Amino acid sequence: MSSQPDLRVKLGPLDLKNPVITASGTFGYGREYKDIVDPNLLGGIILKGLSLKPRAGNPPPRIVETPCGMLNAIGLANMGLDAFMKQELPRLQTLDTAVIANIYGHSIDEYGELAAALKGVDGISAIEVNISCPNVERGGMAFGTDPDVSAEVTGKVVRNTDKPVIVKLSPNVKDIRIIAKAVEEAGAHALSLINTITGMAIDIETRAPKLANITGGLSGPAIRPVAIHMVYQAVQTVDIPVIGVGGIMDSRDALEFLIAGAHAVQVGTANFVAPRATLDILEGLKIFCRDNDVAQISELIGSLKIAE
Ligand SMILES: Cc1cc2nc3c(=O)[nH]c(=O)nc-3n(C[C@H](O)[C@H](O)[C@H](O)COP(=O)(O)O)c2cc1C
User: What kind of fold does domain 9-57+75-201+220-300 have according to CATH?
Assistant: First the structure.
């Protein structure tokens, strides 16, 4: 095939120029990578997790390398809503890509307030809701581990915004299908999965945990098979589009997710290993399409073949 493949994909109401998006917390607000990656070439960028008030996050050490991955316990450090609106939003409004705000709160009302504050704001294409953080009203249990609470958060955000709502699921659950269904029924327009898997590492000399927070979130290639399985399960369960995330390092990894049924992919830890990873993945997808006579990348979505 000599012509360029059509890389456009649809995430419910959201049109993306291609399926490659940066994952929250691994690409800052895009500015940090400005000399390396032109965000306008990507399908979208998902911003660092945003809370109502600024947060310093956890004390260091808050990152540790593990086999085929990393543990992080950043603790969702960020500048808070007001500073974001003043310092980051004006530049983001000039971008020609989907800019997706990632929000989190410690109570359902906080999620609602954030969604309301971003309602009608120019330059924010969609909201991704991180439900992996602790719910202070329920003894610190993560919102995303309970289907009813996950649905409640989703409903609150959906009612308070005019933007497409993507809910990002936690893999730290017994059955992802139950949460996926609950969130879909509460009005989500799309799902992303997975967030990090809870883990821990110990320094045997000091006998202390390697992270000051004791536990952290595992990301990178180590979690990819888990992520692919959960995407596959979610795709079988819901009708809304799913975005795959977890250990995507190159275009072959991204293709696995698309074939499993994901409509788009997010690239996280790979940005730390190779800052141009998103662009390399995009190029690899184009080459794969050309080599395999795939005119539109959307043809690959859910093209998994399972023997009868
Ligand atoms: C350092 C770091 C910070 C992260 N911060 C956030 C965040 O603020 N909000 C969120 O929803 N996910 C956050 N994540 C999770 C990623 O967006 C992604 O879901 C996860 O890392 C799995 O993808 P990966 O293996 O490609 O990194 C963070 C991950 C890392 C490694």
Answer: TIM Barrel (3.20.20)
- Which residues are part of the catalytic machinery? 133
Backbone angles phi, psi at 185, to 5 degrees: -65, -25
Residue 260 beta carbon below 6 angstroms from any ligand 1 atom: no
pLDDT of residue 140: 81
- Give yes or no for residue 245 having a pLDDT over 80: yes
pLDDT at residue 77 greater than cutoff 70: yes
Pocket probe mutation, ligand 1, options 150, 157, 167, 196, max atoms within 8 Å of Cβ: 196
Kindly list the distances between the CA atom of residue 239 and the CA atoms of 29, 44, 63, 235, 263, in Å, as whole numbers in the listed order.
30, 22, 36, 7, 12
What does the pLDDT average to over 281-297? 98
**244 CA distance to ligand 1 centroid (A)?**
12
Whole-number mean pLDDT of the chain? 96
Q: What is the pLDDT of residue 34?
A: 86
Domain boundaries, the chain: 9-57+75-201+220-300
Separation of CA 282 and ligand 1 centre (Å): 20
Distance 24 CA to ligand 1 centre (A): 5
Name every residue whose Cβ is closer than 8 Å to that of residue 283 and which is 6 or more positions away in sequence. Answer: 251
Contacts of 231-234 with C-beta under 8 Å, sequence gap 24+, read 231/193, 231/194, 231/257, 231/260, 231/261, 231/262, 232/260, 232/261, 232/304, 233/176, 233/177, 233/180, 234/169, 234/176, 234/177, 234/180, 234/191, 234/193
The model carries a pTM of 0.97
- Gap between the terminal Cα atoms of the chain: 31
